Amino acid sequence: MLPGVTASGVRPRPAPTTVSAATLRRLERAAGEVAGACLAAMVTRQPWFARLPADQRAGVQLVTQTGVANFVAWLGQGNHTAGTATGTTRLTAEAFRIAPRGLARQLTLCQTVELVRIATDVLEQRMPPLAADGSEFQALSEAVLRFGREVAFAAATAYAGAAEDRGAWDARLEALVVDGVVRGDGGDELVSRASALGWNPSTAVRVLVGAPPRDNPPERLGELRRSAVRMGRSVLVGAQGSRLIVLLSEQPGGGADTDPIGRIAEDFGPGPIVVGPVASDLTTAYASARDALAGLRAVAGWPQAPRPVDAEDLLPERAMSGDPAAHRRLVEAVVTPLTEAGGELLRTLAAYLEGGAALEACARALFVHPNTVRYRLRRVSELTGRSPMDPRDSLVLRTALVVGRLQSAGGSDEPPESR
């Protein structure tokens, strides 16, 4: 039979020897000297520690002194023999609660673990020799190891809490930036907040809007962020109720990604996704967000719209829903160039579209040869980028004609400041 095992099971281990009151008094008197030895060892074994600012070294010294004092107090409570970690957890956590708030941000977790290891080594060297006999020596040695382990766990817990706090603060800051872009806040405050999140405010940006993911939103949004990082893009995400707003940076020269927006769109929820135009920087991204949100409100008017769809491709639906920016864009893109090229192009386009897109009928109505109509329609395509023969383009052109007539008649609902 194996040593330590009986027929009924595992043989219980003997209870460790408690530390006498005389030994505890010697430990208490030596606590300050041991804490100083810990600091000296940190300076010797970790050169970066000596280069820390004085306030940070003082913070580490405070934590070390508290930790050594708590170790002696823990021994006095007898928790090293109790088999439970309640007292240990409380005392080790207290050592990190009294640390300066900025210490976890100034020292990495790896650096803190190295310092804990050094302090444990010093305790293991200095504390057991103060024991009264061999049994106390063994008890102190085991207690140092157990307390060092608890200190390491307490450090990890403190850093995890600090990371959660930073994550929550970053999430609130990110939401404020996205909300500021939507509301049109283009001041220094917006730039400062975005810079704190690692965003370059001078980079070009596009705004995507759609529905948030339904299944496991945190994981899907995390994958969205990871996809952007893999493509070398920066991204800011804001979930506002039933809509998800994403600010996606543009790479100079277009980058190597053939369809970055399509990859980002995979992590949206079901339904349409509208992409605003490229804005030159974060302070002008409001225009991209405005067009994207206007497109999201109007996209229901085009059931066959692709996913994602550019806000520019939704100009007819946006105009019909009363979007002043769409009215202005239609006039600038269609009516103005055709008017400047001569009234015949505008008149021919109107006759062709309103006559059922029949070439011969249009030629008869204008008393011109059909080839003349063909030539003029080609000129319309060259000037506007829209072909009157294409069903979707013809809707855009006809909507632009109607909007232009309404504005000419003084019936525009466009506010003066947006003109």
Automatic annotation (TrEMBL):
Transmembrane segments: none annotated. Pfam families: GGDEF_2, HTH_30. Gene3D superfamilies: PucR C-terminal helix-turn-helix domain (1.10.10.2840). Residues 345-402 form the PucR C-terminal helix-turn-helix domain. InterPro entries: CdaR-like_regulators, CdaR_GGDEF, PucR_C-HTH_dom, PucR_C-HTH_sf. Residues 184-298 form the CdaR GGDEF-like domain. It comes from the Bacteria. Belongs to the CdaR family. This is PucR family transcriptional regulator. It comes from Pseudonocardia asaccharolytica DSM 44247 = NBRC 16224.
